[in-house]
Amino acid sequence: MEFIERSYAREGDEVVKTVLTNYSYLLEAGALFLNLRPKWRRFSLFQIILYFTTMVYFIIILAITTVRLADDTSAASQSGHFAALAVIVICILITYTLKRDKLVDLMTIVGNDYYQYSDSFKSAKLEKWKKNLQKMKLIVIIVIPIYFTVVISLILVIGPWVDELQGYKPDFVNGVYMKVPIPMWFPYPIENYTVHLLTLITELIGAYVLSTAIVGADLVLIFQSQEVNFQMRVLRDSLTHIEERAAELYQQRFKQSDSVNKNSKNYTEVLNFCIKENVKHHKTICRRIGTQLFSLMVVILETVNILLICYIGQQMTYGVSLGLYEINWMEYSRKVNTSILIMKEYLKKDMVLKAGGISAVKLEMFTVIINTAYSYFNLLLASSRDKSV
């Protein structure tokens, strides 16, 4: 309970409001952001225990199913795939539970618009970009759950229906029950309709836990990366208008309404201060990109899902280095140029999302996955042809 109290103490109403505004109740549904308010704690504890127990249960029976269906490469690979997804969900649940403080920190920064410039920088494009970002979030938060619902429906409803159309299918194959959407071995006899119905409900619960956890983790990844893209745009825009910012701040500080003397010591100090503001903004962005997200392990085979996330990961940098180069650095003093060089060197570090801390999330990763999947299915096809000969 001490861990729960400590986690709850870090949160405020603003954090909860930010989570609900950005993700609705999807993170709570996936047990990624448990409701730790006193009256909900027992339910949240029951939820996380149920999710863990369900996934461990399915990992065990899917592993046994894979072994029992070893002679059927296609069926065995399907069982292995779902077992791998269940392992990923456990990794997601453990990560988001133990690293909850990082998620709270992220939501706090998102709720505070990442970084507020002390020089009162305002961009004419800022509101437009922010509206586009909110519109994108609204579309994604509607489309992603629908997409996963369709996929799960195809697996649980259409798949068995197609199997029935293809002809007779036995109830059991080597102890594996075949009359459910995902054939599995179960540790109890299934001899009547009531037990069959309970078994079907168990599979539906497993599918719900699997889909809500992965959907929630995907949404955090997508929204976080889009927030970073948005902030990189703001950073570049502030660099592009650094002279206007410096001139406005110069006039505010020194109360001079006439033209700004760009060769004066005061102007140099103000310009250097504006650059330092950009450095602070960039450091804030870099700290957020370091969060490890386990929603994108390489074993996820949903092609559209992977393509979307790899594309987002590819777009992480928005030409900030170019924006820094475009300012009139030739006219600045050595002190200002030193600050620019320091920031330029720091910008050379690639901003890369990682899949479980292992693989870089970009389009090269997508091509590797597609090539691997193509080779694997060719192997399955060749194996099935050999058996039919």
UniProtKB/TrEMBL annotation:
<keyword id="KW-0716">Sensory transduction</keyword>
<feature type="transmembrane region" description="Helical">
    <location>
        <begin position="193"/>
        <end position="223"/>
    </location>
</feature>
<keyword id="KW-0675">Receptor</keyword>
<dbReference type="GO" id="GO:0005549">
    <property type="term" value="F:odorant binding"/>
</dbReference>
<feature type="transmembrane region" description="Helical">
    <location>
        <begin position="79"/>
        <end position="98"/>
    </location>
</feature>
<dbReference type="Pfam" id="PF02949">
    <property type="entry name" value="7tm_6"/>
</dbReference>
<keyword id="KW-1003">Cell membrane</keyword>
<feature type="transmembrane region" description="Helical">
    <location>
        <begin position="48"/>
        <end position="67"/>
    </location>
</feature>
<comment type="similarity">
    <text>Belongs to the insect chemoreceptor superfamily. Heteromeric odorant receptor channel (TC 1.A.69) family.</text>
</comment>
<protein>
    <recommendedName>
        <fullName>Odorant receptor</fullName>
    </recommendedName>
</protein>
<keyword id="KW-1133">Transmembrane helix</keyword>
<keyword id="KW-0472">Membrane</keyword>
<dbReference type="GO" id="GO:0005886">
    <property type="term" value="C:plasma membrane"/>
</dbReference>
<feature type="transmembrane region" description="Helical">
    <location>
        <begin position="138"/>
        <end position="162"/>
    </location>
</feature>
<dbReference type="GO" id="GO:0007165">
    <property type="term" value="P:signal transduction"/>
</dbReference>
<keyword id="KW-0812">Transmembrane</keyword>
<dbReference type="InterPro" id="IPR004117">
    <property type="entry name" value="7tm6_olfct_rcpt"/>
</dbReference>
<feature type="transmembrane region" description="Helical">
    <location>
        <begin position="355"/>
        <end position="377"/>
    </location>
</feature>
<keyword id="KW-0552">Olfaction</keyword>
<keyword id="KW-0807">Transducer</keyword>
<dbReference type="GO" id="GO:0004984">
    <property type="term" value="F:olfactory receptor activity"/>
</dbReference>
<feature type="transmembrane region" description="Helical">
    <location>
        <begin position="293"/>
        <end position="314"/>
    </location>
</feature>
